[in-house]
Amino acid sequence: MSFDDAQTSRRTRSPLAPPGLITPDARIVRAPPPIKITRAEELRRQLADEIVRGTLRPGAALDETDIAQRFKVSRTPVREALRQLVASGLVESRPHHGAVVAQPSFERLTGMFEAMSELEALCASFAAERMTPLERRTLETIHEELRMLSSQGNPERFHDVNEHFHNAIYAGAHNDYIAEITLATRVRVQPFRRAQFRNLGRLAKSHAEHDRVVIAILRGDRDGAAKAMRHHIDLVRDEYEIYAVSV
Questions:
Q1: Which of 30, 114, 120, 178 has the least CB density, counted as fewest CB within 10 Å?
Q2: In 3D, which of 4, 228, 26, 226 has the Cα closest to residue 129?
Q3: 3-class SS at 36?
Q4: What is the pTM of this model?
Q5: What is the pLDDT of residues 115-173, one digit of tens each?
Q6: Distance, CA of 30 to chain centre
Q7: CB atoms < 10 A from the CB of 178, how many?
Q8: Which residues of 136-170 are buried (b: 16+ CB within 10 A; e: fewer)?
Q9: d(CA 7, CA 237)
């Protein structure tokens, strides 16, 4: 058994690692498959976009029946979508008033991004030290798919694969508790992270930022990986602010 094989066999991959990336012989790495989105998730994204764009303004009521009729669905996926939006902080559930839009203040959003930046930097630093050879190859494969998507100008697919990219780094940190906290924080800022991909030229810039993270991780450079990831998330926040002014 080679050193690489021994390392891979000694470590159990975290359940947070992206699905569908390892074949049965555990040697061939494939690109992430297309992500199947539930109706509730699709509704959550559409409503989140409208909130972030300002179409649905703070304080606006979100009636389950009205939304179900508008999107021609049952109330079940609407209820789940609203539950997810409440978890993300975009919607508040008020007694006797139901769900209403609750756009975070600038200070609140800044604090959320600051936390996201530090958590992602911590995951990247651990990943640089702890990723197995197979996990490193998986990360490279996802990074390459993002390169192709950036040239195609497909922000929706780029966003989905981008989540695989960050999940791979969380899993590569081999600390499930930190990964769980990071994922929970990402849920709260996800609509804003997704919105900034609409900025002109943002996909290519995002890939270039990822490139510095990947290079540092592959070199085993903990400090470099943390610095590159922190810089990336800080730029995501800046890009969202640019987007918010434009809508």
A1: 30
A2: 226
A3: coil
A4: 0.75
A5: 999 999 999 999 999 999 999 999 999 999 999 999 998 898 999 999 999 999 999 99
A6: 20
A7: 15
A8: bbbbebbbebbbebbeeeebeebbbbbbbbbbbbb
A9: 37
